[in-house]
Design brief:
The structure is a single chain. The protein has 304 residues and is an alpha/beta fold. The protein has a domain of 207 residues: TIM Barrel (Alpha-Beta Barrel). An eight-stranded parallel beta barrel has the order 3-4-5-6-7-8-9-10, surrounded by four helices. Strands 1-2 form a two-stranded antiparallel ribbon.
């Protein structure tokens, strides 16, 4: 069933209103190997923290006991035990990584991967399907054809890409009937390239939603700093965190959210307490000067 495209106030629009999501989302990269009770507890914490976007991928679980598809399968169990949950969330998944190839974005593969994800999740439609990483051997017209077919068949509401460059996004959009809704770059106070490589600029130009993966830099912004650059950033984040009585992780996510492209940080926390802690970022506002101080710390130099 097609859902309304209006974006209520306070939500972030993906694709000029195609989908509306809360300012923070929950990612399932490590959502594997858990007892079902623990899985429910983490999902509850994400819901209580206000997350509406739940982001997974077919490859999540590779290298664990559950293997390829394990995160989707576990979340599918959660959905099956809570029939009302599906209508409360925006559910996104990703496809296109096929070890050891490593990437396959041929139309046949993407369509088959989407159908496999739907089966593991026990649902009929994904709100958002994303190409996980660009396949350099796939013509963008073929990727576009896969998205368009899945949309016509009612298996996907919206389409997005992850880890694409700005030029790769433009090339794909040129062939699509279904407009792209989102892009998913790695973006954090230690991974600031999207500020200058055209990705965030393109998102604002085309009205694309930005889903920021690894907003805590793979945990490097949550624990002890590993190098001089991280130490500079952590010192500034800690100063702002102490002023506001929140965690460093919350400040780091607030920094990501402050960009005018309105990035949605994907919290990768796998404990209810950590989810609640990081989600306090939604109540933090950084001044323009504070935001630039973090960027200058990352660069190790004043802005020109």
């Amino acid at each position: 069933m097609e859902r309304p495209h209006d974006t209520p106030p306070g939500l972030v629009s993906l694709g000029r209103g195609a989908l509306g999501v809360a300012p923070m989302g929950w990612g399932m990269w490590r959502f594997t190997g858990l007892p079902i009770e623990a899985a429910h507890a983490i999902v509850d914490a994400a819901l209580e923290a206000g997350c509406t976007l739940f982001d997974t991928a077919d490859i999540y679980g590779l290298g664990t006991e559950g293997g390829f598809g394990a995160a989707e399968a576990l979340f599918g169990r959660v959905l099956s035990e809570r029939p009302g949950l599906r209508d409360r969330i925006i559910l996104a998944s990703k496809a296109g990584i096929q070890p050891p190839v490593p990437y396959d974005s041929s139309a046949a593969y993407l369509i088959g991967a989407c159908e496999a994800s739907l089966k593991r999740l026990g649902i009929e439609q994904l709100d958002l399907l994303q190409v996980h990483r660009p396949d350099l051997l796939a013509h963008p017209a073929e990727v576009a054809a896969a998205f368009d077919m899945l949309h016509r068949q009612g298996k996907v509401r919206a389409a997005g890409v992850s880890n694409y460059t700005a030029t790769q996004v433009r090339a794909l959009q040129a062939h699509m009937t279904l407009p792209l809704a989102s892009l998913q770059p790695e973006f954090s106070a230690l991974r600031t390239e999207p500020l200058e490589d055209g990705v965030l600029d393109l998102a604002m130009e085309r009205g694309l939603g930005v889903l920021a993966w690894s907003p805590l830099a793979g945990g490097r912004l949550a624990g002890p700093p590993a190098d001089e650059r991280a130490a500079r950033v952590v010192a500034v984040l800690d100063e702002f965190a102490a002023d506001r009585a929140v965690s460093r992780a919350a400040i780091a996510c607030a920094w990501v959210m402050a960009h005018p492209s309105r990035p949605v940080p994907l919290i990768g926390a796998q404990s209810p307490a950590h989810v609640r802690d990081v989600a306090r970022a939604t109540g933090v506002l950084l001044s323009r000067q504070e935001w630039y101080r973090v960027l200058e710390a990352e660069r190790g130099a004043r802005m020109p």
